[in-house]
Amino acid sequence: MSTARSDAATDAAMPDEPGEPDGQRERPRMTRRLALPDGLRPYRAPLLLYGVTKLVGLTVFALLLEAAGDYREKQPRFGGGAHWWDVLATWDGWWYLQVAEKGYDPRPLERLDPGGLFTVKQNSVAFFPLYPGLIRGVSEVTGLGLFGSGILVSVLASFVAAAGIYAVVSTLAGVRAGTIAAGLWAVVPGAGVEWAVYSESLFVAIAAWCCHSVMKGRWLAAGLLAFVAGLNRPTSAALIGAVGLAALVTLARRDSRREHGVAGPVYAMVAAPLGLLTYVAWVGLSMDDPTAYFTLQREGWAHYFDFGAYTLDVLGNTAVGHHNYLFAFSVPDLIAVQVVLALPFLIALMLRKKPPLVLVAYTLASIVTVLGTQQMFGNTPRYLLPCFPLLLAPAAAMGRLKWPSLTVFFTTAAVASGWYAHYVMFELGIP
Fold it and tell me: Which residues cross the membrane (predicted)?
């Protein structure tokens, strides 16, 4: 027996020291400290920055709502309610809650009297099923009401989205830039819907991690996420196309084909569009019209792809101070114009960073879809919210600043966002 084992055996057999009660010998104290798993620790700083920044903006929004008090005079469905937080579930939020509560009623298209702006009666099938389905599921599991469940889903999804943005940007520009990008996403124009009963946070969460999966060559995950995105929003077509293009280029190049194989990219190409196609096909079959979804969008909401004619009309009117265009809201439209004018500069900076093809394709396709569609122009910042790769260059540039300067910036932006990203959208326009 070795000396070490003999000493251990002797210590075990010895009685307690004199003067000490039996079993009361002093032993080393073992303390347990709660700690994040190693895999989650890198996300602590970006999620903290995102959460604090969003909370400040939401607080300012609540204060502005209470100070103005206009929401009390509006209908609960159209921007009003008994409490300030009710505003977060109006407009599109009302439709999502209707689907979560009652499901769909896909009757054949009901025609309205001609001559008006809308010639088809609006129907809830215009709103994709993933987000309201999650609201209903969370409500059933937790016992929360549908409103609380909708807010919970959006808030949790927004943190997943911020983590995905951090993962993508930090891979390309470093940890500091990734953290800043997560914070920037909290204060961009349009960010007011991130903690509301809207599907943007859920979509961006899926899109960011889908792009990250493509960047890492995880084709099975990318295909599955793109499939799920197709059940959330029609604009998932941009993400689906980007995943398909990246997979096709991977297969076309001998070196990448050898590295990634064939099965993964092919699976991603096939699986990605199935969610979107399945839902649109279901709407068509249920309403006895293969093009029912697109007809409903065009004639029930006046949303359709017009190759940018509406956007040019708004820009031309705004330039000379006129408002002779559809869905005119002066303050939201002015902010949207500034965002649109900034896009060429942001795109050029993004391309200068030479990001992966999937990010370029996804961003450009999303921008073309937004600017090429007739819809409420004041909501352009909201529609561009999924274009998170545009944050890559600004985040990388701001990464050279010291934290005191960054603190001043994010504090100022967080406070201001309560107005330009929240109040302007919900109270001065129609989100």
Answer: 47-68, 141-159, 165-188, 235-252, 264-285, 325-350, 357-377, 406-426
CA distance 288 to 309: 31
Residues with Cβ within 8 Å of 383's Cβ and at least 6 positions away in sequence, in order, are: 190, 235, 370, 375
- Helix or strand holding residue 373 (H, E): strand 373-374
User: Coil, strand, or helix at residue 308?
Assistant: coil
CB 199 within 8 A of CB 207: no
Q: Does the predicted TM-score (pTM) go above 0.85?
A: yes
pLDDT at residue 1, as a whole number: 40
Percent of the chain with pLDDT over 90: 88
Domain hosting 152: range is 48-123+131-427
Burial zone of 355 (CB within 10 Å; 0-12 exposed, 13-18 middle, 19+ buried) = buried
Mean pLDDT of 385-395: 98
Tokens representing 35 are 């700690």
Residue 105 belongs to some domain of the structure: yes
Length of the chain: 431
Radius of gyration of the chain (CA): 26
24 is a domain residue: no
CA-based nearest residue to 205, from 185, 220, 188: 185
Mean model confidence pLDDT for the chain: 92
Backbone CA torsion sign across 10, 11, 12, 17: positive
Q: Which residues contact 49 (CB under 8 A, 6 or more apart)?
A: 179, 180, 182, 183, 186, 410
| Joined tokens for residue 121 | 């009666």
Quick one: CA dihedral 336, 340, 345, 350, positive or negative?
positive
The answer to whether residue 69 sits within a structural domain is yes
Query: What is the average per-residue pLDDT within 127-141?
Result: 98
**Residue 405: enclosing H or E segment and its boundaries?**
helix 403-417
pLDDT of residue 32: 52
Give the pLDDT confidence of 232-251 residue by residue, as tens digits: 999 999 999 999 999 999 99
- Beta-bridge partner residues of 304: 374
The Cα 429–Cα 86 span in angstroms is: 16
- As a whole number of angstroms, the distance between CA 148 and CA 127 comes to 19
Any domain includes 6: no
Q: At what angle do helices 330-352 and 309-319 cross, to 10 degrees?
A: 120
Task: For 381, list phi and psi in degrees, rounded to 5.
Answer: -60, -35
Q: Residue 194's Cα: distance from chain center in Å?
A: 7
State the total domains in the chain.
1
Looking at residue 11, what is its pLDDT?
43
Dist. CA 179–CA 41, nearest whole Å: 12
What pLDDT does 115 receive? 81
The mean pLDDT value for 318-322 works out to 95
